[in-house]
Amino acid sequence: MTDEYFMMQAIKEAKKALEDGEVPIGAVVVMNEKVIARGHNMVEKLNDPTAHAEMIALTSAFNMLGAKYIPESILYITVEPCLMCAGAIFWSQVKKVVYGADDEKNGYKKTAGANWPFHPKTELIRGVLKDDCSALVKNFFRNKR
């Protein structure tokens, strides 16, 4: 299984968010090359500004595993996580974060700058299927205008 394969799974989640009128961002948690949890933005549906795709997917993984740390997992996200989600990722101790599109407006890099917001052992891979991930969000906001 490749990073592209699992990012496609996250894109499927983003499309679910799009169908619900949410900002189309999706996430999946993977362990042993299997998706163990999925999430997509549910901010509008739950009327909760913390209901980001990453938060939904991580909470699902914690509940499924009965653990608050998931150091053997990989988190795939269609868009760069915000600082709130980066904090949750830090505390979950995921092994690797893989995301597609950068988010210059709301991504963790805007606030954290050069500071590493993830657990010291967490590996980061950026830009996997970034054009596909970016197009979902750009088209969503273009259609909103």
Helices, strands, pairings?
Layout: H1 3-19, E1 26-31, E2 34-40, H2 43-46, H3 53-65, E3 74-79, H4 83-92, E4 96-101, H5 108-112, E5 123-126, H6 130-144
Parallel strand pairs: 3-4, 4-5
Antiparallel strand pairs: 1-2, 1-3
How would you describe this protein?
With 145 residues, this protein is α/β, with parallel strands linked by helices. 44% of the residues lie in helices and 20% in strands. The protein is built from six helices and five strands; from the N terminus they run αββααβαβαβα. A five-stranded mixed beta sheet has the order 2-1-3-4-5. Helix 1 (3-19) packs parallel to helix 6. The mean pLDDT is 95.
Could you say which overall geometry the principal axes of the C-alpha atoms support?
globular
Summed up, the helix count is: 6
Task: Give the DSSP E fraction (strand runs of 2 or more residues).
Answer: 15-25%
Q: Write down the secondary-structure element order.
A: HEEHHEHEHEH
Q: Name the quaternary structure.
A: single chain
Largest beta sheet: strand ordering = 2-1-3-4-5
* First-to-last CA distance: 38 Å
Unreliable stretches (pLDDT < 50, length at least 5) are none
Structural class: alpha/beta
The radius of gyration is 14 Å
- Overall residue-averaged pLDDT value: 95
What is the helical fraction, as a range of percent?
40-55%
Number of strand segments: 5
Largest sheet: 5 strands, mixed
